[in-house]
Design goal:
With 246 residues, the chain is an alpha/beta fold. The protein has a single domain, classed as Aminopeptidase (3-Layer(aba) Sandwich), CATH 3.40.630. Helix content is 33%, strand content 16%. Helix 5 links the parallel strand 7 and strand 8. It is globular and about 50 Å long. The model has no long low-confidence stretch (mean pLDDT 95).
Length: 246
């Protein structure tokens, strides 16, 4: 149980931006159910287990922007790093119609073990990377599925999420994305504020400028799509920050 539950790239890169990916992988550590949550392989390969395409986009965006990046290395179904420690959805037992057997009977002791070995080390590393630049900005990369089971299709290509606690960059990023001709949701397909989530913890609580960008995962399912969207997004992100004067 000594594996590192995160990956970092370019820690010494000079950009103010830190690119984060909370849901980068569907990996299940061997010490959780023998590496098996008890759900079908097809389910582990879809959005309930990780943000499809987000890791590749994060790496490519960080490379293009000469920015550091940090990526989780455990499935959100094991424990969700984009939730506060007291969030009831920290260990999901049912997600988009799929029951998670390995979480059904997870007790407080198991929850604490996963926090100690996965969740907290990831956030400690994110804290350390964020602190390496005195004027740090955080850009969180996520992806969303084109359609949840039993729900209507989602029309957006891009979603820009932001909190009511900090609207310095979010609305401007929405306008900039729409000006590029992208179908862009504003606090869609999710609400932009969740108490205790990664942006709340590492950006809002420190006054750091921030963006949370959601890409529809069919657009970034391949390395080519990831590279293309990194190339598109990088100058828009940089311009929005420059225009803000922050």
């Amino acid at each position: 149980m000594t594996e590192t539950p995160y990956r970092t790239e370019g820690a010494d890169r000079p950009s103010r931006w830190l690119i984060t990916c909370d849901h980068a992988t569907n990996r299940v550590p061997d010490w959780v159910g023998g590496g098996d949550l008890g759900i079908a392989r097809d389910d582990m390969d879809r959005h309930i287990a990780f943000d499809v395409g987000a890791a590749g986009l994060t790496r490519e965006l960080a490379r293009v922007m000469d920015a550091p990046a940090i990526l989780s290395d455990f499935s959100r179904l094991v424990i969700d790093p984009n939730r506060g420690e007291d969030d009831p959805t920290l260990l999901m037992r049912l997600y988009d119609g799929t029951v998670i057997p390995a979480n059904r009977h997870a007790d407080a002791q198991e929850r604490e073990r996963r926090l100690r070995l996965l969740h907290r080390p990831y956030h400690d590393a994110l804290d350390a990377l964020a602190d390496r630049h005195p004027r740090r900005c955080i850009c969180a990369i996520h992806s969303f599925t084109p359609q949840l089971r039993g729900r209507p299709p989602r029309p957006w290509q891009v979603g820009i999420l932001y909190s009511h606690r900090d609207a310095r960059l979010g609305p401007a990023m929405v306008r900039a994305c729409r000006a590029e001709g992208w179908i862009t949701g504003e606090n869609e397909p999710y609400d932009g504020h969740l108490q205790g989530d990664s942006i709340d913890r590492h950006a809002l609580d420190h006054g750091r400028p921030n963006l949370l960008i959601e890409l529809r995962n069919d657009l970034i399912a391949t390395p080519e799509g990831q590279a293309e969207w990194a190339r598109r997004l990088a100058p828009v992100i940089e311009r929005v920050l420059a225009d803000s004067g922050l």
